[in-house]
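[job 4471] stage=fold_predict status=RUNNING
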Amino acid sequence: MLSIAAVDPTTTVGSPGLWTATIVGLVLLLAVDFLVTRRPHEVSLREAGTWSAVYIAIPLAFGVYVWTRWGSQTGIEYLTGYLVEKTLSIDNLFVFMLLLAAFAVPVALQQRALLIGVLGALVLRGIFIALGAAALSRFTAAFLVFGLILLATGVKLLRDQRSGAQHVIDPTSMRSVRLVRRFVPVTDAYHGTRLSVRLGARRALTPFGLVVVAILATDIVFAVDSVPAVYGITGDPYLVFVTNAFALLGLRALYFVLHGALARLVHLGYGLAIILGVIGVKLVLHWAHTVWPAVPEIPTLASLGVIVAVLTTVTLTSLRASRRREAVETVDAVEVH
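[job 4471] inference complete, writing structure tokens
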């Protein structure tokens, strides 16, 4: 049976050499991304599609390496963790889309804002992964805590989906934005990708800087959800980190590929709620199994099957619901005229 491994640095996939190579590779990829976005420009579908294909091919190729090097169990844990994190990253993209629209970010500046958001998410998740590994290695009850966090998040997502609350973002109501505005002046106009400019004797944030603050604030929220989610799949800190990193790296390009489609995934929240709920139950059962060995655990392969089935179902139902809505809107428009 495939189950969550105990967090033991002596048995993890990531050797010091592999950790070093991975971090160097990530830094190089981020450097390339910053060079690509150095000159603000509107991203074409061809450019976004090419980079998206590259950032999907890299983790899949790495998955083949993990499978052949460490066996099918580790390979399934990696692929399942990557799929979970990629799904959660799409939810990130949806929120980023709402933020960029709410702040009226010019199209030419959007990819740099997204890239800064990705970089912030990588740093924050690296911190959360280290803290999570330390907690799981010392306290078995941490599995229970992580499981309850995911269950609570799943319930919140379900409520938000039913109420439609997640489809509206008001920048003036965001705590991070209100806090910044209390202490730092904000200019009315964008100044390219500059985060701040000098106004007289004081520094002032640009609207672009304020957007970055808002995105980084949401990164914290997503880190709280995503790290426990992948720890529900594997207890290996290296696999947790690399699946998070690979899921995040392609977000900048994927955003422009899926920008139109994101609004059509109307049932994505339901799917995420189910997935987080399943992983939450998996973590709680794992904790219970360590206390009462008779308690069964959910195999990782079964988790993968559920995740694939849920994602397939919500994608199909979302597209069907979107087509119906568009048909109704078309009929209404014809009747008005």
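[job 4471] summary: The chain has one domain: 16-336.
[job 4471] exit 0
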